[in-house]
Amino acid sequence: MTGDGIREIITITLVMVAALMSCAAGIGLFRFPDVLSRLHAATKPQILGLMCACAAVAVNTPRVATFLLMTAIIIFQGLTAPITAHMVARAAYRSNHLRRDLLIRDELADRVERIERSEESSTSPKQS
Amino acid sequence: MLLAGLVILWCLVWGQVTPLSVLTGVVLAVVISTLFYLPAIDLSGRVNPWYVLVFFVRLIVDIARASIEVAWLVIDPRYKPSSAVIAIPLDTRSDLIMMLTAEAISLVPGSIVVDVDRQESVLYVHVINVHDDQDLAEFREEVFATEKRLVMAIGSKDDVWRVRQPNHLTRSNTGGAA
């Protein structure tokens, strides 16, 4: 088999994996019960999907420029995706968009409550 | 330092290094770093290339493994949703390490950082697919292992000393009280 043929096969495999991962992310959005779990499905399998897609491009056109660009893409996705997930998760938690009955433990609840109480006590004198 | 990084990034995105791309890169970098001023990061000044490599390889392996796990969960018809929000007290006192640990465990599927207590270095993490205390304990161990790898890679001497302590685990056992 020629080098090009092998390269094609690797590319196809990587693209297939990427597609499967993105597909799983999409199904997960429907199947998971609350915002926090959905975030897992929405933000995570795609990271692997994106890595595979970028690897596929890099394998298909092996030039230094493509390789570096793909590295930059993966690094930036890797840095920004968790931040997005965190911001949404934080907002979801504070606005009660979650199914507490599905949590087997919640160690954040006390703390949020404590902080809110202290905020209330510090702001209430100003209001009155 | 930041300037050079931005210029290199600009050239990366263009995929070419020509006088024009470098020049526009420098102009943009200067504009960006004056408009969006960022406080300097406390670097420990210690980098161990071997542990950096270990960290990245392990991160990629973790991402691949956990992605497949989550993808399987999504299509598994027997999956019964059960998750938890747990507090994970880290040993490090460095903002950078804490941030990178949070990034790393958020990047690995199955866990999202919901909230952070910066003063106490506590991460509040939402974990998916946990059913009992055993699972939670295992997850905690994983996060501590991630933190340890990061500290070994770029942490300060103080932090290295701290993560190497045998009582490292007691902090997790007390649930952050220590």
UniProtKB/TrEMBL annotation, chain A:
One of its GO terms (molecular function) is sodium:proton antiporter activity. InterPro entries: PhaG_MnhG_YufB. The chain crosses the membrane at residues 6-30, 65-89. The keyword Cell membrane does not apply. Keywords: Membrane, Transmembrane, Transmembrane helix. Belongs to the CPA3 antiporters (TC 2.A.63) subunit G family. This is Monovalent cation/H(+) antiporter subunit G. It comes from Mycetocola zhadangensis.
